[in-house]
What we know:
By secondary structure, the protein is of the alpha+beta class. The protein has 13 helices and 18 strands. It folds into three domains: 8-99, CATH 2.40.50.140; 129-167 and 216-458, 2-Layer Sandwich (BirA Bifunctional Protein, domain 2), CATH 3.30.930; 174-214, no CATH class. The protein has an eight-stranded mixed beta sheet with strand order 6-12-13-18-17-16-15-14, with helices on both faces. The chain has a five-stranded mixed barrel with strand order 1-2-3-5-4. A hairpin with a 7-residue loop joins strand 9 and strand 10. Helix 4 packs across helix 7.
Amino acid sequence: xxxxxxxxxxxxxxxxxxxxxxxxxxxxxxxxxxxxxxxxxxxxxxxxxxxxxxxxxxxxxxxxxxxxxxxxxxxxxxxxxxxxxxxxxxxxxxxxxxxxxxxxxxxxxxxxxxxxxxxxxxxxxxxxxxxxxxxxxxxxxxxxxxxxxxxxxxxxxxxxxxxxxxxxxxxxxxxxxxxxxxxxxxxxxxxxxxxxxxxxxxxxxxxxxxxxxxxxxxxxxxxxxxxxxxxxxxxxxxxxxxxxxxxxxxxxxxxxxxxxxxxxxxxxxxxxxxxxxxxxxxxxxxxxxxxxxxxxxxxxxxxxxxxxxxxxxxxxxxxxxxxxxxxxxxxxxxxxxxxxxxxxxxxxxxxxxxxxxxxxxxxxxxxxxxxxxxxxxxxxxxxxxxxxxxxxxxxxxxxxxxxxxxxxxxxxxxxxxxxxxxxxxxxxxxxxxxxxxxxxxxxxxxxxxxxxxxxxxxxxxxxxxxxxxxx
Length: 471
């Protein structure tokens, strides 16, 4: 056995008479008039493959081990299938059971299970239809992202997970420290531990200064872009926000391209190309999975995605959007006014009701955006952009970066941040500064959009949220 075995997705294309082996996990086994029918899946495609076991082919002692959840290899010959739904099936001549499963206690039964329950058995949920489809889509989307940037000459870089600076200036960061030591467990039923502070002096800590899990690879990506022109990073980021909404995770993946010699217009062009090409790739290569989501999770999903790929994105300023919202006559839950951040309900109204396609908003008030965004000449707005998509709202956020040293220093101070941790970032403006721009896309937000899944916990293998770090 090796990795070059025949996958289930390949079995459907084999000609009758072909001798082969089928590896996978048993979805179901049905016995009828001396014949057993097994639905087999290995996760390589959405469809299960049918294996037929004629009476007397396999001993009863072995046959009783072929239950839902068991891992097996069937040997046999491909034959034409009289059943609807697939042209061929495997007539089994032998079987090897790699691992049995107690059918009565197997957590992933044929009957439907709630998504909440499946999160509790996240180590098994990839074997089911829904999450097999989610994770195939995740894998294909990641490949499409790398292909998109490679075709355009971007360099893939890896930025640090541990940092001493806060890219967003929001302060919601996980501190990394070796200054705490665990003492003996307390005599408490909840299993709490006692901790001792070894040293309160940051210089005595592992890195010699306060350090954190990164909230973004953007600042480091800028340093490489201002030497290699076009780069992107694609990796995990962390936010210590005590939020349990369906749209927030403590650990999630970000795609962050950075481009030297690029302004806001070029940034918008790249973001639009990016979404259209990645979604188009999924439409081309994940047809069965998307059809499942369209039928079972989000009606009209395929229509929405095809519309995104074929429609030009509308471009509006933040001020124009606020005016539209104020004049809409809608009774929004959150009030609208210039200087306030737009909420999801506002973003969806713009894309679904007013415009009817994706929208790119630009030139936000500087007070609601990060310090690194380039300030406009009006002194009130910055060259920020958000890409809003129907059904989900913001899916990409980006900006032209502030390349002027004096303006950037002033913005850092205005944001209440110290200059010292950003000395290297400011050096980029001291030595050969250049116009540059970039954006960030939350990978899980994109996956929610293309699958129709309603909770971000269901598009990542193991979710990290307040109070939850299982698996």
